[in-house]
């Protein structure tokens, strides 16, 4: 905005006392190269036409209507700070957290500094999801703590991880290796962790004609599949007593959480085996249940099944999609039967398009909104 509109005065309002959003609270501590973008943010903040006001919560300390009366333009960029729910029995048991909560915990986010996940009373952790965030939390659980000590991870999290008894991490996905939602870069990193054995059921690597078609249409999917296939082959006969284990569990979906003997903490996840079937509407392969079940024992569950944005009073909001209805970043009115934009009200980032993408994705998204 400062580049595009000469003479503009920009106030950044944040509910936290510190700036930089997900770069500070969402990027893994062992990814300092991603956090370099903070330098660019700092240069913007140093501009005399830019001011930062922290510890101000929209909807509590100031309303959207008050903001719109105060400023010529309001750009909403508060992201997705809540989690999707599985909606299955036992989800409220102790020992079950969202991946977002765990990420915020080890990054020192003030909302989660008291989370205190129990890492000492179990050997096995289950992560539901196989996207990049799922790989992040798995990597933090398994990475050598001496290496983590050189990062900016929260001190209390490092202490807890040093005392962790977790030696097996299971990454559970509803579909197969071809459909794994991670990127090749993130996958390559976790497959290369020191002293970690990669465990993949070779039968899960068998591909169908539909899988082959997907890989022909997506270089990323093919590369992910190739990396998983190679890892399964390399680690096939490697097993040492002091190794930790990373299990990729494909074609499984959670049905319920089973309590441990004390009745209050999670003791296992019941999984249903799935098979892929072509969706008649979208044509995509979707996971359907087979009626076969198995229990996977664990004392920690991290749900990496997606974020969701929350509405604020006076803001049009699509509850089904979890985004603010917009036209290239201009908020659409909910009170008009025709497509009408709200004057001076814009949206950007995950609140605009949903919780997907990387830093570069948000840059293009912001350019579109400012250009609108």
Automatic annotation (TrEMBL):
Protein name in UniProt: NADPH:adrenodoxin oxidoreductase, mitochondrial
EC numbers, comma separated: 1.18.1.6
Binding, NADP(+): 130-133, 174-175, 186, 357
Coiled coil segments of this chain: none
Known catalytic reactions: 2 reduced [adrenodoxin] + NADP(+) + H(+) = 2 oxidized [adrenodoxin] + NADPH
KW Glycoprotein (keyword) present: no
Entry GO terms, CC: mitochondrion
CC cofactor: FAD
Subcellular location(s) per record: Mitochondrion
Keywords assigned: Electron transport, FAD, Flavoprotein, Mitochondrion, NADP, Oxidoreductase, Transit peptide, Transport
Chain sites annotated for binding FAD: 22, 58, 350
GO molecular function: oxidoreductase activity
Sequence similarity: Belongs to the ferredoxin--NADP reductase type 1 family.
């Amino acid at each position: 905005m400062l580049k595009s509109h000469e003479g503009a005065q920009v106030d950044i309002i944040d509910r936290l006392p510190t700036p930089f959003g997900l770069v500070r609270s969402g990027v893994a501590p062992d990814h300092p190269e991603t956090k370099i973008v903070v330098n660019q943010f700092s240069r913007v903040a140093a501009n005399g036409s830019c001011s930062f006001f922290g510890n101000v919560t929209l909807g509590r300390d100031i309303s959207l209507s008050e903001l719109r009366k105060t400023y010529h333009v309001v750009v909403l960029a508060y992201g997705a700070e809540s989690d999707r729910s599985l909606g299955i029995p036992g989800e409220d048991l102790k020992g079950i957290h969202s991946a977002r909560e765990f990420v915020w915990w080890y990054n020192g986010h003030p909302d989660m500094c008291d989370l205190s996940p129990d890492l000492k009373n179990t050997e096995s952790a289950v992560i539901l999801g196989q996207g990049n965030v799922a790989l992040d939390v798995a990597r933090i659980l398994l990475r050598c703590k001496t290496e983590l000590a050189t990062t900016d991870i929260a001190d209390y999290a490092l202490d807890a991880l040093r005392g962790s008894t977790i030696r097996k991490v299971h990454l559970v996905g509803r579909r197969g290796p071809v459909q794994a939602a991670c990127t090749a870069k993130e996958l390559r990193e976790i497959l290369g962790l020191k002293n970690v054995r990669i465990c993949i059921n070779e039968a899960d690597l068998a591909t169908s004609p539909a899988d082959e078609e997907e890989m022909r249409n997506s270089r990323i999917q093919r590369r992910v599949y190739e990396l998983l296939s190679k890892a399964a082959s390399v680690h096939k006969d490697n097993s040492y007593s002091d190794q930790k284990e990373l299990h990729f569990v494909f074609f499984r979906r959670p049905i319920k959480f089973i309590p441990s003997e004390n009745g209050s903490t999670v003791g296992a996840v019941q999984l249903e085996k799935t098979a892929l079937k072509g969706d008649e509407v979208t044509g995509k392969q979707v996971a359907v249940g087979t009626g076969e079940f198995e229990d996977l024992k664990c004392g920690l569950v991290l749900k990496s099944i997606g974020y969701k944005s929350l509405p604020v009073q006076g803001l049009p909001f699509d509850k089904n999609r979890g985004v603010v209805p917009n036209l290239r970043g201009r908020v659409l009115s909910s009170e008009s039967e025709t497509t009408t934009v709200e004057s001076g009200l814009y949206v950007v980032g995950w609140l605009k398009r949903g919780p997907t993408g990387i830093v570069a994705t948000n840059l293009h998204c912001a350019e579109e909104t400012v250009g609108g």
